[in-house]
Amino acid sequence: MACPVLVWFRDDHRLYDNPALSAAVATGSQVLCLFVVDEASPGLRALGGAARWWLHGSLQSLQNSLEKAGSSLILLRGPASEVVERTVCETNASAIFWNRRYGAAEITIDSSLKKRLTERGTKVQSFNGRLLHEPWEIRNQAGGSFQVFTPYLRAVMGRRIPPPLPAPRRIPGGIWPASILSSAVALQDLDLEPSHPDWAGEFKTGWRRGEEAAQEKLDFFLENGLSTTLALSSVSRG
User: Fold this and answer.
1) How far apart are CA 116 and CA 138, in angstroms?
2) How far does the chain reach from its first CA to its final CA, in angstroms?
């Protein structure tokens, strides 16, 4: 049996316009999807109560979307660097894909992990899944960073923005080894949502979590809010 590939979801709880997921599916291999709840690595900012509530709904939505496409999402807990390296080893994955993070602690984790995995022969590919342009791509004529906004804006406006990627219609899910399944955590057992008391009860009436809700919000803004924003901007310039 061919080796599977891994997709490590982090801040990108979606199938649509997800370059790491699309690249993994394009390999034609079985795709194993994981999310790591990392509350142990040094330097990471702990999630507040509202963010934890939101994460629960986002992960539930992602799990549902992956299952509809033929895959699944496994939840693991612990220092991401250790958990991911062990997962790569025990699944015998030939490659791992993720979308880049930009916090200092996150960059340290990802860079160290990428170095170790590459040295052991695992293909590691990271992608821009959050920004229109990477920070290091926009440079002035001297090759340095812009210090003034207007020249920066002109440089950015002259760059092409690639179209969004479609969501994979089918994701060939794989079989997780028993050693990984035994350490998996159920979403409910992560205790991300408050219960006693449930101070987030009213959140549910005002906010919808997950990719589908986010896409509806974006569509509404493009159809309604964007034209208003552009009109106000034109008036302010006039």
Assistant:
1) 29
2) 65
DSSP string over 198-222: -TTTTHHHH---SHHHHHHHHHHII
DSSP H helices, the chain, are 19-26, 49-68, 80-91, 104-119, 149-157, 178-181, 203-206, 211-220, 226-237
Q: Domain limits of the chain? A: 5-132+166-233
Encode pLDDT of 180-231 as tens digits. 999 999 999 999 988 888 888 778 777 888 888 888 888 888 888 777 665 5
212 by Cβ neighbours in 10 Å (0-12 / 13-18 / 19+) ranks as middle
- Do 34 and 9 touch, CB atoms closer than 8 A? yes
- Sheet-wide strand order for 31-37: 73-77, 31-37, 5-9, 95-99, 123-127
| Whole-structure pTM value | 0.88
* Owner of token pair 């990392």: 38
- Main-chain phi, psi angles of 220, to 5 degrees: -65, -40
Region 5-132+166-233: CATH code? 3.40.50.620
**Cα–Cα nearest to 40, from 9, 12, 10, 77:** 77
What CA–CA distance (Å, rounded) separates 167 from 188? 27
With beta carbons less than 8 A apart as the criterion, state whether 17 and 59 touch.
Answer: no
Query: pLDDT by residue (tens digit) across 29-40?
Result: 999 999 999 999
Residue 146 phi, psi dihedral angles, 5° rounding? -70, 140
Contacting residues for 137 by C-beta, under 8 A, at least 6 apart: 159
Residue reference for tokens 């599916």: 25
Dist. CA 200–CA 136, nearest whole Å: 39
